Amino acid sequence: MDLKKIKELKNLLDAGILSQTEYSELKLKIINGEEINLDNYNKEKDSITSNNDGISKTTNEPNAASQDIKTPQKSVNLKQFITEDFDKFNDKKTIKMKWPQTINSCYYRMWFDSKSYGSTISDWKGLEWKLNMRYIKTPDIETCLIDYNYLGGDWLFINDSEMIINLDSGENIKIIAYETNTEVGVGRYRAIQEVGYYSISKEQLKKICDSKSVEVRLGGSKGYHVLNNKPDQEHASKDLLPADKFLFMCRAFYSGVYDDNSYSNHLGLIVEELEKIKEVEKAGAGCFIATAAMGSYDDPLVLDLRFFRDNWLTERSWGESFIANYYNYSPKYASIIDKNKFFKIISYLLIVKPLHILSLLINRNN
């Protein structure tokens, strides 16, 4: 396997020359030992780099899958993006966003273990942002809500703070956070959790959906985070860039709730492209033993190890040799592990978990 060629592919992806689908397909060919020619792609990259106006194909616009130029191969069922519930005792209708299998509600996730020497208690630092949407209708109210779920190593104090949504680098929509719950010691990271919602009108939501691009600033009195489409966001979601994901969420939810097919091309093309990428990446993912031990290609631990492989191991000559040998010998052992619960536990304790801890320590020091 030519790891230098894979690095070259990654550079072309970061430069905006390759789409995510093209990158995944070409990477799989390299893994399978096929010869590929990247000369034309590199010429295009050199042409853009030498262009005096400095314009790059990588912009803050939604990616190629987000444009309503093509038509999805399958018709889009707008109701696939929502779930509905009716409480007849309170005459209350609730609609929630239902994410496709290839996309989830996590926008940003970054954790590292800052445990001091001699301590038996991990001190996890970092943060995690999740956003979702709801619609509520009763005899007295009708409103849309953007639910937030923040996990962090410290309080952010989101309550009463603004989410600011910038539309096409122009108009700003500002909505206020209302806190519903807080917890400490949550989950494996023993994190602080802040949960609540932003109320948004139908008119505001429609403006967002009609925009070509958005940027979102959300946070609290102790700091904020910006959801945008800048490349090389190490800890952003791996399905869609954060700003694209926010626009997809708004359009999918609006379409399902109000039965509006104005954005069906945009939604259908994104879902189809991500499904294709998923199939290609699963075929050539490479983290065979970790995936078998954890039981899922999308397990957070597997994602961390893939990131470590792509951004640290591949930068070292001995790392390239290690990966090549791993790809040659690990699949047959992974197939055995995948079928045996006992082997899964042993592999996790003796191989996967120690490697994960090592990768977190190295990432932290870098």
Beta-strand residue fraction: 15-25%
Terminal Cα span: 27 Å
Largest β-sheet summary = 10 strands, antiparallel
Q: What class do helices, strands and sheet pairing give?
A: alpha+beta
Residue share in helix: 40-55%
Low-confidence stretches: 52-69, 116-120
Oligomer: single chain
Helix tally equals 10
Question: What is the string of helix and strand elements?
Answer: HHHEEEEEEEEHEEHHHHHH
How many separate structural domains? 3
Task: Map the helices and strands.
Elements: H1 3-14, H2 20-31, H3 39-49, E1 82-87, E2 92-97, E3 106-113, E4 124-137, E5 142-152, E6 162-167, E7 172-186, E8 191-200, H4 202-210, E9 214-220, E10 223-227, H5 242-258, H6 264-283, H7 288-294, H8 300-311, H9 317-338, H10 341-365
Antiparallel strand pairs: 1-2, 2-4, 3-4, 4-5, 5-8, 6-7, 6-9, 7-8, 9-10
Report on the architecture of this protein.
The protein is of the alpha+beta class. It has 3 domains: about 1-60; about 65-275, no CATH class; about 285-365, no CATH class. Helices cover about 40% and strands about 25% of the residues. It has 10 helices and 10 strands. It has helices at about 5-15, 20-30, 40-50, 200-210, 240-260, 265-285, 290-295, 300-310, 315-340, 340-365; strands at about 80-85, 90-95, 105-115, 125-135, 140-150, 160-165, 170-185, 190-200, 215-220, 225. Strands 1, 2, 3, 4, 5, 6, 7, 8, 9 and 10 form a 10-stranded antiparallel β-sheet that branches. A hairpin with a 2-residue loop joins strand 9 (about 215-220) and strand 10. Helix 7 crosses helix 10. The longest helix is centred in the last third of the chain and has 25 residues, at about 340-365. It is globular, with a radius of gyration of 22 Å. It starts with a helix and ends with a helix. The model is unreliable at about 50-70 and about 115-120 (pLDDT under 50).
